[in-house]
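Annotated sample (chain length 93).
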Amino acid sequence: MAAEDGLTDWLPYGAVAQRLRHAHRRVAALPSDVRPEATHRLIKITDLAKRDLARAAEKLDAFMAELNVTMGAEEGKPPSGTAPSDENPGPTR
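Output written by the structure step:
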């Protein structure tokens, strides 16, 4: 998907853009009682990426880790603390 939309052509911007897109999809799947706050935080991270990509990548890492715990709790799973590598790839610098 990312190859045809050209996001990977602008590494590391493309890597962060792909992760932000994935995060937005995951937030959209959250229950309506927690979605607004998560959406607000994600929009702030997206805006930060325009000015400071490295810091936005760090904040996105923390946000995704918290989202993994939240979604695990929603699904009745114990919090894992780590995400599969395809869901939360590390920042590209």
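Annotation: Residues 8-74 form one domain.
Annotation: The helical segments are 2-5, 13-28, 35-51, 53-74.
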